[in-house]
């Protein structure tokens, strides 16, 4: 059952310094927060909203309230909302609020968005939103290049700015022409910029994974086994719950409730067979809605190992300090970051090259492609287009050597 509409939506303080009220998904900015003008606009707006049966006309504007607001104030005509300039910092403030909801499950993207908004505020925050054009964005892009960010990452940040202004247009904080002008900027091309090129992600060698796994806790070792056998994304691996695995058919199917393309209406089904099934079966006998792979279990195993190899007795003072200042409690599940850190610590202990979880995804994609073809790799990795699979499942050098050897010869 849908939640009933509020008869008086709350008046809130906005990071831009203005009062804002949200009605039917639209934000109405009423002027400087706490001023008589803002309070009067709010009172008149709510009265109009209630008189319209909890609806506002589609073409409604806050400036339509000014005549009635003037009567309420009994003084000179109030400052028109339309005359209050919308600055870049107002746009970023609004986008920060959206990001808190949009990226609630993606801490890395939320942090990236906050840092991006901080930079825009510091460099162009006092610029009119509609005056922020291609030249301003290109200056910001050059700052990112000068700071040493890679070409692909700089292009990604520029894309974030475009999404920010697209959202501003939807909230009537900027004109559509402003967003269209910013879209005229072409991405940085390889060889046409001083921005460094980041090395492409390559599959990690299976022997490196095996050596690393020997230094991992049983929980993390099971995660690596499932990861390498399925090629799923690290975020999907960390969120596995028993309730998300369909065990009714002959093959167990993991259907993640949240995944990268869920917002586009796409479904994801990952078969759990072979080594993945052997690794995960022991983690299914728990609360169906709890996460399969628990950091707390890893910490308990590590502490047990330390106690078993300890040469001296634990002193009373050490026990006292541990009780007064307990270490930070582990979360209820691994994050992509904590999973990566655990792997890199184990790789260092094993004396092998550093690698990260996404290289397991590339390893699975490459091996499946070599064995069964690119369509099979596409199905395993969950890509909508073969062009994306090409990035993950590169043809191996051995395949290239074999192809070159089979090429026609012009002369005998």
Structural overview:
With 412 residues, the protein is mainly alpha-helical. The chain has helices at 36-51, 66-73, 88-102, 107-124, 134-146, 151-170, 176-182, 206-213, 218-230, 234-238, 274-280, 295-309, 316-324, 336-350, 358-372, 374-381, 386-392, 397-406, and strands at residues 12-13, 18-23, 26-32, 245-246, 252-254, 270-272. Strands 1-2-3 form a three-stranded antiparallel beta sheet. It has a three-stranded antiparallel beta sheet with strand order 4-5-6. Helix 1 crosses helix 2. Residues 78-82 have low confidence and may be disordered.
How would you describe this structure in keywords?
3 domains; mainly alpha; hpI Integrase, Chain A; 3-stranded antiparallel sheet; single chain; globular; 18 helices; 412 residues
Oligomer: single chain
CATH topology-level fold name of the largest domain: hpI Integrase, Chain A
CATH class membership of the largest domain: Mainly Alpha
Main-sheet strand order equals: 1-2-3
Main beta sheet, described?
3 strands, antiparallel
Class derived from helix and strand content: mainly alpha
Provide the low-confidence segments as ranges. 78-82
Question: In DSSP terms, counting alpha (H) and pi (I) runs of 4 or more, how many helices?
Answer: 18
The helix fraction, in percent, is 40-55%
* CATH architectural group of the largest domain: Orthogonal Bundle
Name the average pLDDT.
82
- Compressed to H and E, one letter per element, the order equals EEEHHHHHHHHHHEEEHHHHHHHH
The CATH homologous superfamily of the largest domain is called Intergrase catalytic core
């Amino acid at each position: 059952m849908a939640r009933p509409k509020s008869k008086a939506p709350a008046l809130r303080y906005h990071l831009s310094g203005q009062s804002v009220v949200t009605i039917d998904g639209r934000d109405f900015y009423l002027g400087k927060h706490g001023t008589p003008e803002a309070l009067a606009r709010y009172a008149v707006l709510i009265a109009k909203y209630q008189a319209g049966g909890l609806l506002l006309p589609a073409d409604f504007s806050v400036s339509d309230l000014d005549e009635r607001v003037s009567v309420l104030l009994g003084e000179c005509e109030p400052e028109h909302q339309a005359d209050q300039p919308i600055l870049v910092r107002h746009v970023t403030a609004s986008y920060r609020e959206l990001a808190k909801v949009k990226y609630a499950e993606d801490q890395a993207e939320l942090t990236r968005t906050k840092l991006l908004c901080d930079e825009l505020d510091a460099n162009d925050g006092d610029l009119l939103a509609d005056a922020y054009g291609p030249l301003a964005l290109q200056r910001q892009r050059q700052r990112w290049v000068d700071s040493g960010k890679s070409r692909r990452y700089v292009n990604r940040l520029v894309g974030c700015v475009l999404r920010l202004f697209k959202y501003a247009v939807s909230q009537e904080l900027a004109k559509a022409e402003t967003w269209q002008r910013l879209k005229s900027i072409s991405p940085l091309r390889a060889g046409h910029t001083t921005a460094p090129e980041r090395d492409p992600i390559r599959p990690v060698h299976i022997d490196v994974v095996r050596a690393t796994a020997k230094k991992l806790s049983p929980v993390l070792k099971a995660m690596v086994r499932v990861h390498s056998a399925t090629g799923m994304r690290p975020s999907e691996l960390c969120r596995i719950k028993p309730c998300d695995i369909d065990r009714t058919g002959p093959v167990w199917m993991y259907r993640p409730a949240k995944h990268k393309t869920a917002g586009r209406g796409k479904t994801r089904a990952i078969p759990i067979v072979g080594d993945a099934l052997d690794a995960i079966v022991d983690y299914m006998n728990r609360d169906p809605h709890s996460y399969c792979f628990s950091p707390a279990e890893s910490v308990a195993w590590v502490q047990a190992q330390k106690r078993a190899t300890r040469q001296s007795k634990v002193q009373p003072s050490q026990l006292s300090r541990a009780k007064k200042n307990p270490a930070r409690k582990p979360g209820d599940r691994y994050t992509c970051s904590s999973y990566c850190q655990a792997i890199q610590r184990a790789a260092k202990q094993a004396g092998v090259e550093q690698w990260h979880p996404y290289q397991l995804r590339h390893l699975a994609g490459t091996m499946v492609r070599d064995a069964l073809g690119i369509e099979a790799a596409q199905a395993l990795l969950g890509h909508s287009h073969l062009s994306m699979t090409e990035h993950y499942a590169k043809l191996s050098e051995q395949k290239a050597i074999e192809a070159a050897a089979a090429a026609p010869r012009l002369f005998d």
